[in-house]
Every structure is written in C-alpha cells, then in structure tokens.
Amino acid sequence: VQLQASGGGLVQAGGSLRLSCVASGRTFTNYAMGWFRQAPGKEREFVADIGWSGTRYRDSVKGRFTISRDNAKNTVYLQMDSLKPEDTAVYYCGMRVYGRSAYDYWGQGTQVTVSS
C-alpha cells in the first residue's frame, strides 16, 4: 500500500491550502481515510476523517477545514482555509478498515507552515 500526500507549503495566516493524498494497492472504498498532524515537540493528533458515517473534525479546525474524498481517483483531500500559525505541522494521511479505530497505513507527511 502506498499513500502519497502532497499540497503542503508556506502560507500567511488567513490563507488557504489544499492537501491531497492518493492511495494505491488497496480497494479504496473499503477504507475510511483520515488526516493527522504533528507539530514539533508534540504528539500526532487527529484532524479529520471521512467514511461511510460521514465526516469528523477536531474542534479547533471545525468551520475552517473540509475533508472530502474522490473514490474514482483514490484520493482524499483536506481543504484548509483561514489558516492560523497554530496549524503549522507535518500533516499525514492514513487509511483504516471500517469498524476499526487504529490506522493501518500512513503516508509520508507534508509540511504546512503558517506565518503570522
């Protein structure tokens, strides 16, 4: 299985970025997809996920971030608007089998830096 994340970069506070993660090697529709992030010196934290039951977000990104998926392209997206310096982190996409809480596969991460 390969997860290839892209779309990170440097942006000013208030700006936007769209992350993409392309999956290969598994039947994409059998998996829920999620985004996590890890800032320097901090634990990896949940950002958002999407599956049969819908979408979920951590409270600090609700109303600013939108997760979506295109099953025809085996791709999950994270649209990030109104970015804040505290959103700075390496963002990772992950896949998990429906019904399980643990993620089975992870992408390599993409750096998002928000300047004030």
Question: Would you give an account of this structure?
Answer:
- With 116 residues, this protein is an all-beta fold.
- 32% of the residues are buried.
- It has strands at residues 2-6, 9-12, 17-24, 31-38, 45-51, 54-57, 65-70, 75-80, 89-97, 105-106, 110-115.
List the helices and strands and how they pair.
Blueprint: E1 2-6, E2 9-12, E3 17-24, E4 31-38, E5 45-51, E6 54-57, E7 65-70, E8 75-80, E9 89-97, E10 105-106, E11 110-115
Parallel strand pairs: 2-11
Antiparallel strand pairs: 1-3, 3-8, 4-5, 4-9, 5-6, 7-8, 9-10, 9-11
Query: Mean pLDDT across all residues, rounded?
Result: 96
Order of helices and strands: EEEEEEEEEEE
- The total count of strands amounts to 11
Major sheet details: 7 strands, mixed
Count of runs of 4 or more consecutive helical residues: 0
N-end to C-end Cα span:
37 Å
What's the quick description here?
The protein is mainly beta and 116 residues long. The chain is built from no helices and 11 strands.
Features:
mainly beta; 11 strands; globular; four-stranded antiparallel β-sheet; seven-stranded mixed β-sheet; single chain; 116 residues
